[in-house]
Amino acid sequence: MAGIPTTQATFPMTLDKPITVVVARPEKKEREKEEVEEVLVIEGIEIKRDEFVKFDVLINDEDEVVVGGGGAEKAERAGSFVNMPHRHRDGNDGDGGNMKRTRLRIGISELLENLGVEEDDEDVVVKLVPRCDNVHVMIGGIKIEIE
Asked: Where residue 45 sits, what CATH number does that domain have?
């Protein structure tokens, strides 16, 4: 894929610099139903409870990046993940430490429509951009589901 600075999607992956991955969309027959929402799922987000963590999620049409060479300036912001530092009163997190594991779900159907992503497009480009330095962030996987 010429033109896409893509990190090979080997999960889990440390989010210490911007990463770009190509994510497969669900099969076309699943998307053809009326009133369905495509949902971007970033799973296995592992962070420290007592650190401020923020990263942005950008989406682009794979064809735009390759053919038009537009890159990041044509990408649309889908959302952000934010963790505010906090501790439990009793000091016991119940998970044996200071780590928290969660996931982020973002509805993207309208965004894909605004980007002009066609129904027959099989993939989209997802870019995660960390907005803090020196924090622990692991990403377990990225996928698109139908709801």
From this structure: 2.60.310
- Calpha distance 4→62 (Å, rounded): 9
Residue with tokens 């430490």: 97
Contact 79, 100 (CB under 8 A): no
Listed residue (130, 106, 126, 132) closest to 55, CA to CA: 130
**How many CA atoms does the CB half-sphere of 125 hold within 13 Å?**
27
What length does the chain have?
147
Q: Average pLDDT of 111-133?
A: 90
pTM equals 0.81
What CA dihedral angle connects 131, 132, 138 and 141, to 10 degrees?
0
Q: Residue 57 domain-assigned? A: yes
Query: To which residue do tokens 């044509």 refer?
Result: 74
Paired residues of 53 in beta bridges:
83
Q: How far apart are CA 70 and CA 54, in angstroms?
A: 25
Domain that holds residue 65: 13-86+93-146
Each residue's pLDDT tens digit, 41-100: 999 999 999 999 999 999 997 665 444 444 555 789 999 999 998 766 655 545 556 899
